[in-house]
Write a structure and sequence with these properties.
The complex is a heterodimer. By secondary structure, chain A is α/β, with parallel strands linked by helices. In chain A, 28% of the residues lie in helices and 16% in strands. Chain A has a five-stranded parallel beta sheet. In chain A, α1 links the parallel β1 and β2. Chain B is mainly α. Chain B has one domain. Chain B is built from ten helices and no strands. In chain B, α1 packs parallel to α9 and α2 runs antiparallel to α8. The chains are: A alpha/beta, B mainly alpha. Bound molecules: iron/sulfur cluster. The site of iron/sulfur cluster (SF4) has 13 residues of chain A, from α1 and α3.
Chain lengths: 134, 282
């Protein structure tokens, strides 16, 4: 029995998104949705994280920082990409400054599509990501 | 050793943090976590990897356990429902100071800018609240003419100023809302705990949870003090819930405002408490 599934702590990482996905991700902890019911909680430090929620197209400026932050999380972390940007670059596909698929740079467990995805979709995705935690 | 009180503190620590999170959630129209959530959080932290910071001191992971063991000594010494205390008031003051100091020490040693800022703020906050806290405990001791927890004889109107000072200082000692400057999550990531993961982080969480129960229990013993198990449990729960309600309804102060508040208002009030207790007794 592992207890990570009962208390996933979420770290939110912005890689240069338009802020749409971030608003929807933070909406998950607000009264209407309340992921604290599942035991989840937003934490500020990657050292405490079990799930890392990544938003945005990976831009070249932030790439090194993202890798450092993800390396700082303890073993057993799960990386979840939110939004069309992490999948293909989305709106920023043809930009000179982005290096889109997030999966190119780090092992991503799952993507939640949408531009931005609804909070319901994010919660459903997190519930599935909990299955991957061990 | 008072195993009964130790068991009470152990169970209450988990239950009370759930009550606190429920109160916070209902004040924001949320549902809140399930009742076993603190247990799950702790067990999860125990099975996570403990990351060793390359630059930080190798003693760093042991810092929270110094504070935790001091807290457990206090928990095992306090009286519960007629079982006499095995530590006295002076030892309790000393051990509680050791608990508060563990937090800034961890921040200073952790080689992180967030930990450093948080530790500086925590040290300033300790300097502000420790004097009125000690004076309020001393005025209870003078009023009851004893330094032992066994001879405290209940509620008195003369102790109201000391009671108020102890309540406010307890909030500051626990880093609860108006005084949560050292671990302000929106500014400082996670305060002194930023660089901690796994078992040492679990130690910090336990300190945070148990300290709340111990301070609520001290408030009950020093100023209400009825040696009866049911009254003890109910009053400690009510006192802790009132801490949580204060946490839910107040905003955060700035560190200079915290110092101002304690030096300008709490120190004179606690001195007044001592003077009143002396006038009544001598
Ligand atoms: S997926 Fe859409 S909403 Fe999300 S960051 Fe990209 S452009 Fe913004």
């Amino acid at each position: 029995m592992t207890f990570v599934k009962k208390s996933p702590w979420i770290f939110h990482l912005n890689t240069g998104s338009c802020n749409g996905c971030d608003i929807e991700a933070v909406a998950c902890v607000t009264p209407g949705f309340d992921i604290e019911r599942l035991g989840a909680k937003l934490v500020g430090s990657p050292r405490h994280a079990d799930i890392i929620l990544v938003t945005g197209p990976v831009n070249k400026h932030s790439l090194e920082r993202i890798k450092t932050v993800v390396e700082q999380a303890p073993k057993g972390k799960v990386i979840v990409g939110i939004g069309a940007c992490t999948i293909s670059g989305g709106l920023f596909k043809d930009s000179y400054n982005t290096d889109p698929p997030l999966g190119k740079h780090m092992p991503v467990t799952m993507y939640i599509p949408g531009c931005p995805p609804k909070p319901e979709a994010i919660i459903a995705g997190l519930a599935k990501a909990l299955e991957a935690l061990k | 050793m008072n195993y009964l009180n130790l068991a009470f503190v152990g169970i209450a620590a988990f239950l009370f943090v759930w009550i606190e999170r429920k109160i916070l959630a209902s004040s924001q129209y949320r549902v809140g976590p399930p009742i076993l959530q603190p247990v799950y959080d702790l067990l999860k932290l125990l099975e996570k990897e403990t990351i060793r910071n390359f630059f930080a001191s190798p003693m760093l992971p042991f810092v929270p356990f110094v504070g935790l063991s001091a807290l457990l000594v206090v928990a095992a010494g306090l009286p519960f429902a007629g079982i006499p205390a095995s530590i006295d008031i002076v030892t309790t003051i000393f051990l509680l100071l050791l608990v508060s100091v563990a937090y800034p020490i961890a921040g200073f040693l952790s080689f992180s800018p967030y930990g450093y800022i948080s530790a500086r703020r925590a040290a300033i906050q300790i300097l502000s609240y420790e004097l009125p806290l000690t004076l309020s405990i001393i005025s209870a001791a003078i009023f009851h003419q004893t330094l032992s927890f066994n001879n405290l004889s209940g509620f008195s109107f003369y102790l109201l100023p000391a009671m108020a000072v102890f309540y406010v200082c307890a909030l500051a000692a626990m880093h609860k809302k108006p005084f949560d400057v050292p671990n302000a999550v929106e500014e400082l990531v996670a305060g002194s705990e930023t660089e901690f993961s796994g078992i040492p982080l679990a130690g910090f969480k336990l300190i945070e949870w148990i300290e709340g129960v111990i301070l609520a229990e001290l408030f009950f013993l020093l100023f209400i003090g009825i040696p009866d198990a049911i009254t003890h449990i109910v009053s400690v729960t009510v006192i802790f819930s009132s801490f949580a309600i204060v946490e839910a309804v107040t905003p955060r102060l700035r560190i200079d405002h915290v110092t101002d508040f304690f030096i300008k208002y709490m120190v004179p009030l606690s001195i007044a408490g001592v003077v009143i207790a002396c006038c009544v007794r001598f």
